[in-house]
Amino acid sequence: MKWVQVFDPVSGILVSALLASMPVFFIFWALIIRRMKGYLASMLTALAAMIVAIAVYGMPVRLAAMSALHGILYGLFPISWILFGALFLYNVTVRSGQFEIIKGSMASITHDRRLQALIIAFSFGAFLEGATGMGTPVAISAAMLVGLGFNPLYAAGLCLIANTAPVAFGAVGTPIIIASQVSGLPEMAISKMVGRTLPLLSLFVPFYLVILMSGFRRSLEVLPAILVSGVSFAVVQWYTSNYMNPMLPDVIAGIVSIVCLTALLKFWKPSKVWRFSDEPVNSATAVKSYGISEVVKAWSPFVIMTLVIITWGLQPVKDTLNSLINLKFNIPGLSGSILNQDGTPLAIKQFDLNLLTSPGSAVLLSAFISMPVTGLSLKEGFSVLLTTLKQIKYPVITIISVLAFAFISNYSGMSTTIALALAATGFLFPLFAPLLGWLGVFLTGSDTSSNALFCKLQHTTANAIGVDPLITVSANATGGVTGKMVSPQSIAVGAASVGLVGKEADLLRFTIKHSFIMLAILSIITFLQAYFIKNIVPEYTLNEAVVKSGSASGISGTMLLLILAACLVVFSGAVRISTVRNGKKG
Questions:
Q1: Which of 108, 150, 414, 500 could form an S-S bond across to 145 if both were Cys, CB 3.0 to 4.6 Å?
Q2: How much is the average pLDDT of 41-48?
Q3: Secondary structure class of 358 (helix, strand, coil)
């Protein structure tokens, strides 16, 4: 069966774009107006997308069904797999009793909720985004904030908003690498351009978060902390993206931001500790003091996770693990069946069941390693595992439905129709270039996928209107970060991580306004870059060398894994010995 994509099914690009947007409008209506449960709204949206694809675009039923199947499989792995690993790690920390100590250690740094949000939602979340991406930052950070006493809706909403600044460099720079491959522009050129735009947002987000929590006047009380958090992150993000590579900005900037803010709080405290109005009056003082060894033990699951995730992100390690198990296969009847308008087969990637190299597997492994370190028995660990499986039942339904909708939209040509309508704006196109990135992330939940969808179109349109394509291609990546907080996939992960399954509509209502505010800011910045501040565009040539991730010293993946194992053994042994000594002293 062969079928040629149609981008203007009703011979009018604007009307076609409106028809193609119907599933998007529907999911907003279902979640915001009707306040449907997330899994029900997502299932109906996938059904609506299938109806439009078949009835309006003439897509054969079988191809529409296979497109949905591809999305469902991708929703299960790696997305749901990552969520499962992140929640399991968090639940291990809670069941072992270590999270109470984490709460105490955080409170010893600061009782102030504003500052806790900066450290965990912004800085630690950015580090996780840079290391693994794919929902892990929101799942882990939001769960930690809830454990500290944050309202679940606020915790998830704040983490979704905070996750905007690092997304373009997430998952070890994957969005930038894909943007380069699709557009033909050099990786470092895109990295530099994105690194000259996103730091402005990185400066803005910490202040925005605190204002959202406590209001403008109360935010001024912690202005030194906001400035240290935002400036340290933005400067390091700019430097690493412009002078190193696109793989490291979030990882290094996140760590530096945490260290700088923690150091500031050793010498400076806000005059008044701010807590949520519905918290007990004496909750700020009800904190037990813990020793260093207790704090290290409590944080050990996240230390272990950090070591494993960083190692998993190295290319030699990926190559070694993939050589052991890496199942790839085509979706039956889909590959080669959908043709572009020029008659060439649509590029449909094989489904990649990279079980060992998935970030979800890295987090899951970290959880199992952490069990004996935190004192959790194997029996208790499997009980936690079963509890976690029950937790993610409805979120998984939501996620696979959303991905089914996304893949139907992409393979039928519906998403391209919307993009072509925006590209028809001519001189004003730079204003809409970030909106294309936003749309791509809304549809797929991934800045990487958004770049794969639209960066070629961004490049072609920019050339047609006489704008440097580096500006619009980079705008696709930066605009995409603002769509992350409202993507149904992200909403589902955020809701699941804090126990708000069925309340996805409330979470979307919390984030949607802020998504459009930040999108508008980036649209104005992109327009100014295109016509008024052209000198901000870095010089580049099309034959620049490709940036490669991996080990500069040529160390093999096996050796890196052995080094990781040795580090984990030493760290775990040190924690256990320290625990035994403290027990004897007690």
A1: 150
A2: 92
A3: coil
